[in-house]
Amino acid sequence: MHPFFRNQHRAFFSVLLSFALAVSLLSSSALAWQQSTGAAAAVAAKPAPALTPAERKAARVKLETIRDVTSTLSSPQFEGRGTGQPGADRAAQYIADRFAKIGLKPAGENGTYLQAIKFKSAQVMATTSVKFGDAALKHGEDYVILPPYNSEVVDVSAPIVFAGYGVVSPELKRDDLAGLDLKGKVVMIVNGQPDGVDAAAWKRATNPQARGLNIFGKGAAAMIVAGAGSGAQPYSLIANYLSRRRVSLASQPAMPFTIPPILLASDAAIEKAFAGSELTYAQTLAKAKAGEAVSRELGKTATLALRIKREETTSSNVVGVLEGSDPKLKEEAVVYSAHYDAYGIESDGRIFPGAADNALGVGTITAVAEAFVKAFPKPAARPRRSIIFLAVTGEEYGLFGAEYWVAHPTWPLDKVAADINFDGIGTEVYGPVKRVVGFGAEHSDLGPVFEEVAGATGNIVSPDPMPEENAFVRSDHYAFVKKGVPALMLLGAPAGDEKVWIARAKKWMETDYHSPSDTVKPDWDWTGPQTLAQMGMVIGLRVANAEAMPTWKATSPFNKPRVVPKPN
Q1: In whole angstroms, how far apart are CA 529 and each of 1, 428, 429, 518, 534?
Q2: If you average pLDDT over residues 178-203, what whole number do you get?
Q3: Rounded to an integer, what distance in angstroms lies between the CA atom of residue 358 and that of residue 346?
Q4: How far apart are CA 228 and CA 26, in angstroms?
Q5: How many whole angstroms separate alpha carbon 238 and alpha carbon 230?
Q6: Helices 235-242 and 3-24, interaxial angle, to 10°?
Q7: pLDDT tens figures, 243-255
Q8: Candidate ranges 19-33, 39-53, 395-409, 491-505; pick with highest mean pLDDT
Q9: How would you write 298-332 as a 3-class SS string?
Q10: Can you tell me the distance from the alpha carbon of 315 to that of 90, in angstroms, rounded to the nearest whole number?
Q11: CA 165 to CA 250: how far, in whole Å?
């Protein structure tokens, strides 16, 4: 294969991978709460000893602290805490100031609470415009641009050619591009499958790389894809994600070449391209479904004026530590983690407050830190191991902050006993928490500790409602797991009829998840996160005072030694 076509092939493959990644984000760890069945009903925890007097005294987590930190971080002044945006910088400094006020020592870089990370960002600007003929389209509603964005300015004005499914397949004796002049044109194709074709052969023929290579190989100036989405993941949901600002680590290599723009468009937008032609889009789609040839020029011009803002930015993890009391074991540490970033502010002014996901988690670990310091004012009485509080950035874009910290730890990673992570969709605020899921409990010595503490605090250990979603590998704790550090992610829910809170969780997923409406609600029950924080604190306290660090179960697929730092 000629190098040019090989590069185009890889480029299109990269684009489709980005699309697949964006869609996979719709099934984050929080989706584990989206559905539940009777088979996933909570099971009672085994009888466990009560908390010791010292643990009861220590676990006085202040509800007010959780509420104050959560409400403050999700307020408009922090503009959604978008990674690499000013709102995130203000949030990091706010958290650092809280850590300092509590009495934690800085554990970031250069004697500060911060660990700076360099990022690249790309954002579709409000000045971007797309027209089909005289009909103007709205970004994020009528169309989205598939990442990666290779150029800051792209201008295309060319006739629209509809190329059916865009399939060229000798096996199927089909060529949707036959007789079409694609050079310099905007080519429109549709996803789907006609009736009566062999499914396996069609899957081979509609390989995204092959379709892209065929179309761009004939000189197309841009591609517009119709029919993106499904009943489970409609176009509107996909567009909601793909219309947002993109963030990646600055160390990620840029593509050494550019490819023409690829847009996904809604059915309503595609109809505007067909307006005035002999058939509507719906009629054309019906004929295509029936196996008829439908490729043709639409007699209309597409005008694309794409404007992308690309920047190199910095965002920071925030790290504080409470030093342990044991002369030797204080070199080891238990980590509490939560991500403070959300989706920030978009070029059109939309703000994503990220209250439940995950200002609430940061409020929780801040309250735990405060409780530890107040419970053990004298250094000699503190837990034997040190306790680290880590608020990370960049989680929403790929666990970047946690991955960076374990790759550049500010504490020796082989001395990290365990990570206890707080991240979710806010089911703990639906009422007083009585059900707790410990994601990862089955993989290490943390499991028995979790179950004992749940029983001692009067909580019910619930199984993972949707184990097929693999929630354990979808939040910041997983960065630790990959380095050999046992970890737990704690999520809570109220007692009573499961159907009630599950229905609320489903509604939240549909309306608030990763949306501007993820705000603190008046009916939140703050005793829920307080209970979850108390459980997390006691678990960490027991791990901090144990003779040995937790170990993986021999049967766990994550069983591996902790990473030992390389000598300088």
Answers
A1: 58, 6, 6, 17, 8
A2: 95
A3: 18
A4: 15
A5: 10
A6: 110
A7: 999 999 999 888 7
A8: 395-409
A9: EEEEEEEEEEEEEEEEEEEEEEEEECCCCCCHHHC
A10: 10
A11: 37
Cα–Cα distance measured from residue 561 to residue 568, given in angstroms and rounded to the nearest whole number: 21
- Which 3 state secondary structure label does DSSP give 267? helix
Q: Is the peptide bond before 86 cis (omega within 30 degrees of 0)?
A: no
> What is the C-alpha separation between 495 and 561, in angstroms, rounded?
38
Report the alpha-carbon distance of residue 236 to residue 12 in Å, rounded.
23
Q: 8-39: b or e for each residue (b if 16 or more CB lie within 10 Å)?
A: bbebbeebbeebeebbebbbbbbbbbbebeee
Residue 49 near residue 454, CB atoms below 8 Å: no
Residue 428 identity: E
In a 3-state reduction of DSSP, which class is residue 170?
Answer: coil
Residues found in the chain: 568
For the record, the structure tokens of 173 come out as 């004796």
What is the C-alpha to C-alpha distance for residues 10 and 553, in angstroms, rounded to an integer? 40
Instruction: Flag whether pLDDT at 340 surpasses 60.
Output: yes
Residues 6+ apart with CB under 8 A from 135: 272, 275
- Rounding to the nearest 10 degrees, give the CA dihedral for residues 401, 333, 388, 452: 100
Give CA–CA dist 406/399, Å, rounded. 11
- Let me know: does 218 contact 182? Beta carbons within 8 Å: yes
8 Å CB contact between 18 and 147: yes
The pLDDT of residue 218 is above 60: yes
d(CA 132, CA 155): 14
d(CA 443, CA 256): 42
Task: Check residue 24 and give its pLDDT.
Answer: 34
Give the separation between CA 82 and CA 340, rounded to whole angstroms: 9
H-type alpha helices, 25-124: 53-58, 63-73, 86-102
Query: Could you say which DSSP state residue 533 is in?
Result: H
Measure the CA–CA gap between 452 and 104, rounded to whole angstroms: 28
Tens digits of per-residue pLDDT, 517-545? 999 999 999 999 999 999 999 999 999 99
Locate tokens 């079409």: which residue?
180
- Helix axis angle, 3-24 to 208-217, nearest 10°: 130
CB crowding 81-102: b at 16 or more within 10 Å, else e: bbbbbebbbebbebbbebbeeb
- Collapsing DSSP to helix, strand or coil, 17 comes out as helix
Q: Where are the alpha helices (DSSP H) in 416-467?
A: 446-456
pLDDT at 9: 33
| 342/401 Cα distance (integer angstroms) | 13
Cβ-proximal residues to 386 (8 Å cutoff; 6+ apart), any chain? 321, 322, 323, 324, 330, 331, 332, 333, 334, 411, 544
Residue 240, token pair as written in the block: 């909601």
Say if residue 46's pLDDT is above 60: no
What span, in angstroms and rounded, lies between the C-alpha atoms of 271 and 246?
29
Tokens 């869609």 map to which residue? 23
Strands 262-265 and 222-226 come out as: parallel
Domains detected in the chain: 12-17+125-308 (3.50.30.30), 37-123+311-545 (3.40.630.10)
* Bond preceding residue 568 cis, omega within 30 of 0: no
DSSP H or E stretch at residue 489: strand 487-494
